[in-house]
Input
Amino acid sequence: MSGTINKQWFLYQEKEVFQDKRQKKLILGIPNELEKGENRICLTPESVHILVSMGHEVLIQRGAGNNAYYGDTEYADAGAMIVETLGEVYTADVVLKATFCRGYGLYARPASDSFPSETL
Output
């Protein structure tokens, strides 16, 4: 079967190509949700465990999971680093929130506004 491409050949080539590529470690941050009545959190302890096992780092502001009934201990046990301040969370590569980001010079659309109907 010379000259044909089969699954084994393709997988071997893929392994050779990506063997030297190192996946970038991401630092993910989760701040406390400040909106009144907001009980959601973007990552559960189970999802934190998966991300940490993949080599990523997760920063969670102390108490961020309380309204969703996840304690700091559960997140720490899953591998997250519990931080005290919003500033520490915003050092992350990516910040995950259930509501809009506010502060630290970030653009935040007020909740009452709607997206413009015009396209660019």
Q: What stands out?
A: Strands lie at 27-30, 57-61, 81-83, 94-95. The first helix runs from residue 7 to 18. Residues 107-120 have pLDDT under 50 and may be disordered.
